[in-house]
Amino acid sequence: MFDDPNAVPTRIGFLLIRNFSMMAFTSAVEPLRSANRMAGRTLYEWQIFSPDGKPVAASNGIEVVPHKSMAEVDREKIVVVVTGIDVQRYEDERILGFLRRMARQGATMGALCTGSHLLARAGLLDGRRCTIHWENLGGFTEDFPEIEVSSDLYEIDRDRFTCSGGTAALDMMLHLIGRQHGQALANQVSEQFIHDRIREPHDHQRMELRSRLGVSHPKLISVIGEMEGNLEEPLTQTDLAERAGLSTRQLERLFRKYLGATPTRYYLTLRLHRARQLLVQTSMSILSVALACGFVSASHFSKCYRECFGRTPRAERAIGGVTGTSSGSAPPAPDLPIRLAGQF
Asked: Could you tell me the pTM of the whole model?
């Protein structure tokens, strides 16, 4: 659809689900508005849908008034589902039915932020490559192991396009505008938003470790990269030191100097935060979560989890996980004595 410059105006329907990401939504819509302005004609039109036709509240509390409900939608050539936090707890078969109906009618289907969850549950990502927000990657791969998912900014696979969310939606829309109406227009739109570089699809979502941690010691960065890549089967401190060309004593000194923690404590905290994401985002059993994060038993995992977060894994799930009743995300973790690379 986005390859045909004569398909003007290109119509796009956005389905908003409560707690959707306002940043991802506006980053997708605003380039379309600007493209129309820069071109001096209507290249794109869009409509907003909600499940029931009522206003939808974003995760920041701002409500958006839709043009119509899903039931009032007849046909659309492009449908984009926009979600945000707690998408894994959103149970509404009407939405999945609507997405399947649009796909059967030949619509190109897209998703922003965590919207890939709903496309996957509707069976619309089978045999397709997709992406999702980095914070949800672990839970998504556990829930949908048969789907090929990447950590890229966005993925375009035939009649499916998915985006990791946030400002990545701007890059994806600029890419699609460029594909349909030329790179010169895409560059004009990018300049309008003071966006000095249109990122490529395969750019990484997350900041480099050096920036996230606020440290630049190359061997410390290397060790933490190894830790993040080996959460399910943790490496020993000796292995970590050897891979970085350090002694264990040197490794200890580096962690204490730059992060105020031992390597063992830092590694454990990384694994526990991964476990917390799986508890909140998936229906995996507590034992399965424990094993997926490198713990040999549920009891040891529960003990460590309680020491870190002040509550057991079962209590965490009851408060904010997939079996909980809270309408928001899980409560924030307490401040930790170290700067954890994956936190924001």
From this structure: 0.75
Which residues 6+ apart lie within 8 Å of 78 measured at CB?
1, 10, 11, 12, 13, 107, 108, 109, 110
Could you tell me whether strands 10-16 and 78-82 are parallel, antiparallel, or unpaired per DSSP bridges? parallel
| Same domain flag for 170 and 234 | no
Amino acid at 291: L
- The answer to whether residues 188 and 220 belong to one domain is no
Asked if 163 and 23 sit in the same domain, the reply is yes
> What is the spatial order of strands in the sheet that 154-157 belongs to?
68-69, 44-50, 10-16, 78-82, 108-112, 160-163, 154-157
Q: Is 14 among the domain residues?
A: yes
Domain boundaries, position 275: 209-320
- What pLDDT is attached to residue 200? 87
111 closest CA partner among 59, 154, 48, 58:
154
Instruction: Give the total number of structural domains in the chain.
Output: 2
Say if residue 78 is in the same domain as residue 119: yes
Residue in this structure with the two tokens 């031992």, named with its chain if needed: 262
pLDDT tens digit string along 272-325? Answer: 999 998 888 888 899 999 999 999 999 999 999 999 999 999 998 887 644 333
In a domain, residue 221? The reply is yes
Confidence of residue 327 (pLDDT cuts 50, 70, 90): very low
**What tokens were used for 26?**
């506006």
Helix, strand, coil share of the chain (percent; to 5): 45, 15, 40
Q: What are phi and psi of 175, to 5 degrees?
A: -65, -45
Angle value at C-alpha 227, between 141 and 235, nearest 5 degrees: 105
